[in-house]
Design brief:
Strand content: 25-35%
Number of strands: 5
Order of helices and strands: EEHEEHE
CATH superfamily: SUI1-like domain
CATH class: Alpha Beta
Oligomer: single chain
Mean pLDDT: 93
Radius of gyration: 11 Å
């Protein structure tokens, strides 16, 4: 699982992407909702990738590790 920040195609607005989550779509949406609440921001799930508005990489890495996932930061 990789956590990264991206601004491409978003008019300079950054989002945090979480890729490689091996869950079915219903559980993926549930995990996305939980992470959005934890960060206090919006987001969505597109093509199996969780997008959360803003730069929340540090918070998301610690939260996912607390849930038992092996997480790597990708990018800057």
């Amino acid at each position: 699982m990789r956590v990264m920040r991206e601004t491409k195609g978003r008019k300079g607005k950054g989002v945090t992407l979480i890729q490689g989550v091996p869950l079915p779509p219903a559980e993926l949406a549930e995990l996305a909702a939980r992470l959005k609440r934890k960060c206090g921001s919006g987001g969505t799930v597109k093509a199996g990738v969780i997008e959360i508005q803003g730069d929340h990489r540090d918070r998301l890495v610690t939260e996912l590790e607390a849930l038992g996932w092996k997480v790597r930061r990708a990018g800057g």
